[in-house]
Every structure is written in structure tokens, then in C-alpha cells.
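Residues determine shape. Next comes a sample protein:
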Amino acid sequence: MIKLDDIDFSYEEKTIFKKLSLTLEKGKFYTLLGKNGSGKSTLLKLILGIEKPKNGEIYIDNINLRANLSECQKQIGMVFQNPDEQIVTDIIEEEIAFSMENYGLESKAMLKKIDELLLEIGFEGRNDEKVSKLSGGEKQRLCIASALALDPKILILDEATSMLDPHNRKIILTLLKKLKEKGMTIVLITHHLKEIEYCDEVLLLKNGEIDFKGPKELFNRLLTKGLVDIGLDLPVAFKVARDIYLRTEMDLSEDVFNLNKMGENLWKSL
């Protein structure tokens, strides 16, 4: 669904990517990790066509980004960190309709799509409510609905859960998992390691390179080395799992998100 082929990119004299290649498959949920300055935002700008690589090619759903920018951009829905900076109207229905109106969709099709998206995000029947009355988590769900209004095949979320409390973060992640199960390709940029529970693949950007991919590889590295070198804090469950591993070499990578099993394993290790 997204393919980067030997990408070179620099800001003046500073090299960000050198021969970077990456393939993201259709219908998978990816989490992109990396500390500030690792290249996450630059990678996002390249995929969106905001920045152009010095060398190499980018493909979105097998379409060359350089050759057909507008068609590629239609395939991608974007959700950003702060919903208040993305929302442009004050009525829920009007917010979802905004992008469809810009593309000239007929009224009947728009209304049908709005109702479908409201049902998707759990807002059924709330068409005429004011956006200003929504909580932060609800606003972010509305932003997701707006991003899906033109039926993109890819949904990219740039730190979209960072301003939410754990309850609303879980609602958003559950929604993303449902979208993935319906065939949507999801790319979640985050600093919250616990969110990898919901994804299929983990991508870690370090010094402009993909350091590793896959939840299992991440867990194994957490247990043996931690992630201090890339500036990411470990959730409590990860710290407990690592402590148990260092004392007993018991591999808890499969149980790290299951607090009950973690408690059982902790008791066994004492």
C-alpha cells in the first residue's frame, strides 16, 4: 500500500534518509516509534508529498507519487495531534461534510456517508450537535470520521492519542483496530509503547533508518536491552517484565499486556 524505494533526503547539509526502503502492506496496522529528530515527521511529509526525495521513488497503492500527487493524496486520510487545529466547523455533520463538499459530492451521497461514519465512531443521531460541546476524545473521533469521508485506503495518525486520557486513548485504538479489520491500512505515529498492543507491525526509526519491525522483536529487545538509547520510556508492565527476565530469564513477551498473567509471573519469580 505504501512503498519507499531507495529514498535519499536531506535538509541542506543534514542527511535524514540514505537509501531508505520500506514496504507497508495493505490492511495492516503499523505503529511508528522514534524519538524527536529520528525522522518520523520527515517520513510523513514524504509520504504525503509535502517534501520530495532527492533520489528514489514513493508509491501509494502502486501509484507513483511523483507522477500523480493528487491521486496519491486522495488515498490517504490524516489525523493530527490536536483536534482543535484540524476541526473547521462547529456542527458535527458539517465537519464530516466539509471535505466532501469541496470535492462536489452530491447531497444524497453525502448524507448517506455522514450517517455511516457517525455510526462508525459511535455518534449515531448526533448530527446536529455542536463540536464545542465534545470532549477531547470525542473531537478526535470526529477527526477520524472526517479523514474517512472521501474513502481513503490509508489512515495516518500523527501523535493523535498523545493528548488523551487512557480511557479515550483505548476508545480510539479500538476504533482503529475495527477499521483495520475492515481492510484499512493504519499508520499510528506515537510515543506510547503500550499502543503497540493493537498493531500488527512495529517500526522504529533511529538515525534515519528502520531499526527493526515486529512486536515480537520489540518485546525481545525491551527484555534484554530496554529502549533507553532511543529515548522512549517503558510502561510499568514492560519494566516488570524486564526485571523478571533479568533475574530469571523468563520470557514474558507474550504476556506483557496481560496484567493478570504478569502478576502471576511476578509471583512465580519471587
Summary: The CA atoms of residues 27 and 136 lie 27 Å apart. The beta strands are 2-11, 14-24, 29-33, 55-60, 63-64, 76-79, 154-158, 185-189, 201-206, 209-213. The longest helix spans residues 166-181. DSSP finds nine helices and ten strands in the chain.
